[in-house]
Each structure stands twice: as structure tokens, then as C-alpha cells.
Amino acid sequence: MLNLNPQASRFILFLIFVGITVFTAQSIGLFIAAVFMDFRKSQTLAAVFMLTSMLTGGFYVNDSQMPVWIRWIQYLSFIHYIYDSFMLNQFEGEYFPCPPGNTSGVTSSGLSCPMTAQDIYSMRGVISNIGRGGNIAIVLAYGIAFRYFAFLCLKYLNRSHKQKRRV
What we know:
Blueprint: H1 8-36, H2 39-56, H3 78-91, E1 95-96, E2 115-116, H4 117-124, H5 131-166
Antiparallel strand pairs: 1-2
Helix pairs in contact: 1-2, 1-3, 1-5, 3-5
């Protein structure tokens, strides 16, 4: 339906990447909730954080289209790394020839052909030098770090919340 790469190994990796994304997003939500212990404040910060992550992640806005002074934020976005992993998983080793009868080297949509995976990566701003494994390791590190910080917040900040309620 979506014309994704039909190889079973790529599909299994896709499912693993989705699971890691869910784990990391849950960890961020848990951390934000543990810091504020207030639904409205947590919801507001989570919305701002996720919107910033999505906008700088590379899917909606390519890094070359972002102002230079704000490009560094993309490296703080876990979505940037998971997006790169999805792109590498989908297009690694792929080759897209020109449509039959095309001798100009340009498709009807204005793209050059033939097109390789590296062409797609450079067009979409994907950093392929650390590979899928490196990107996934970074996203997992984000998830584990946010879970750990959530634990610390619940352990130490929650004491002050309990003491305020008793008084």
C-alpha cells in the first residue's frame, strides 16, 4: 500500500525502529510529567518539545531550508535520528533508473534520473555516515536517559510534593 521496501529484514527493522521511537517518546513524556506533576504544565511543555522536535527533525523542513542560527537544534531532536534511520532502512542500496523512453535525464516532476540512495539522502538532508545502528543507538540513549532522569525526579522531587501536601 505504501510501496515500502518489501524485504522482510527491512520490515522487521522498521518495526524495531517504531518500537524504539515509542519507547523514547514515552520516556520524554514520563520525564516531563515527573518534573511538573501537574497535567496542564506537563501537557504544554510536551507539546512545545514535540513540535520543536518534529519541525527540526528533517521530515517537515529540510535542514538546508532552516535558518543557519537554528540548525543546531536538529541534533537535539530524537526525531532527526529516527527519521535518518527510517530513510537509511528504506533506501539503502536502492537504484531508481529513468522511466522508459526518457533520454533527458530529468523526470516529469523535475528530478534527475537515474537516482541512487545517496542522491535521496543528500536531497533530504540525511546523515548517512553513522548508519542505522548509530542513529538507533542515539535514540535509545535518549530514551534511557529520559527514563533515568524521570526516575530521579520521582525519587527526589516527589518528596517535596508529598511534604507540601501534608502541611
